[in-house]
Specification:
The protein has about 200 residues and is mostly beta strands. It has a single domain, classed as Pnp Oxidase, Chain A (Roll). Helix content is about 10%, strand content about 35%. It has helices spanning about 15-20, 70-80, 90-95, 110; strands at about 25, 25-30, 35-40, 45-50, 55-60, 80-85, 115-120, 125, 130-145, 150-160, 165, 170, 180, 185-190. The radius of gyration is 17 Å and the shape is globular.
């Protein structure tokens, strides 16, 4: 099968998300200048550089009470900071609860029953019990093609790792099993890993 996205795919559901998979989930926590807090998962998320460490996520829809975007991007525009929380399999249900299109007044930490802790380098909350959190200062918000598509880039200014995830000096993902996003309503979980040496190593 071949299709041009501009012409449509002719399938019951868009296959694009199922093709680009699995995707890590960035559980983005933000705080508005009024002190309100938001927590929302994004699967268009990844790390993009080592030095300095940088991450990105994309927001692709809007809410009536936020104009051209959603709560996360609106808060980041407002304050210039955000925190990326890594989602473990054990948190799948509370993560899903936080994904609803709730009014901007709704605090998803409270609604989903997620414990919060203060970040160290930015004025924002993080998921207290998550396996890892990356505190970030905004570097760019890039408007990309599409009515509500925004690419958010940030520099990591602080890193939290849960102690039980450190094994012999390495951050071991099998200690918490990362949740990953696939297509449609599908998710997956990392339960095994293997190593490969690069040529010449």
């Amino acid at each position: 099968m071949f299709y041009r996205p501009q012409d449509g795919h002719g399938l019951p559901h868009n296959p694009f998300n199922a093709i680009v998979t699995p995707r890590p989930i960035g559980w983005i926590s933000t705080r508005g200048s009024d002190g309100s807090e938001n927590l929302a998962p994004y699967s268009f998320f990844n790390a993009v550089a080592y030095t300095p460490p940088q991450v990105m996520f994309s927001s692709t829809s809007a809410k009536e009470d936020r104009g051209d975007t959603k709560d996360s991007v609106a808060n980041i525009r407002d304050t210039g900071v955000f925190c990326v929380n890594i989602v473990e399999y054990a948190m799948k249900d509370v993560m899903n609860e936080s994904s609803g299109a709730w009014d901007k007044e709704v605090d998803e930490f409270t609604k989903a029953g997620v414990a919060r802790a203060d970040c160290e380098t930015i004025p924002c909350s993080r998921v207290a019990d998550g396996p890892a959190s990356l505190e970030c200062k905004l570097t760019q918000i890039v408007k990309i093609e599409g009515a509500h598509n925004f690419l958010v880039l940030g520099e990591v200014t602080g890193v939290h790792m849960r102690d039980d995830c450190l094994v012999d000096g390495e951050f071991d993902v099998l200690r918490f099993n990362p949740l990953t996003r696939m297509g449609y309503r599908d998710y997956s979980v990392i339960r095994e890993k293997f190593a490969l040496k690069r040529p010449g190593e």
